[in-house]
Amino acid sequence: MNDEIPLPEIAEAAFSIGAVVRHRIFDFRGVVFDIDPVFANSEEWYQSIPEAVRPEKQQPFYHLFAENGESSYIAYVSQQNLLPDHKQGPIHHPGIDAVFEGWTGDQYQLKRLMRQ
Q1: Is pTM beyond 0.85 here?
Q2: Mean per-residue pLDDT pooled into runs of 10, the chain (116 residues)
Q3: Are 79 and 21 within 8 A, CB to CB?
Q4: Neighbours of 34 (CB within 10 A)
Q5: Alpha helices of the chain — where are they, by DSSP H?
Q6: Is the dihedral of CA 52, 63, 101, 94 positive or negative?
Q7: Ramachandran sector of residue 31 (left: φ over 0; alpha: ψ -120 to 50; beta: rest)
């Protein structure tokens, strides 16, 4: 019996926790608060993405405190669909203060309690 989990094709995360990013296709920005090394959401969620823009599962996926012009929300985005965006300034999501303690001008700093 082989219980090994296959290694992802992209083995390194391009973004760290606290990084500010924007979606490559859709108009929103966010700050990374968690990283999955490969897809770890439901199959139903995955199938709901239009096939033409559905990402590969074998890559890092990022949990974001996201915002667009109308609202703040939590997003789950593949690495292939993210670009760095810290030059646009901080994110104004209400969840940020629970996890991060400040904006450095480049990224958010994780609260000391979250680092342990």
Answers
A1: yes
A2: 58 92 96 95 95 92 96 97 93 95 93 70
A3: no
A4: 13
A5: 43-47, 96-99, 112-115
A6: positive
A7: beta
Nearest Cα to Cα of residue 23 among 74, 71, 84 = 84
CB atoms under 10 Å from CB of 71, counted, come to 9
List C-alpha distances in Å: 98 to 65, 80, 111, 113, 114.
Answer: 11, 27, 8, 10, 10
Residue found under tokens 């940020």: 96
Per-residue model confidence (pLDDT) at position 63? 98
In single-letter form, the type of residue at position 103 comes to W
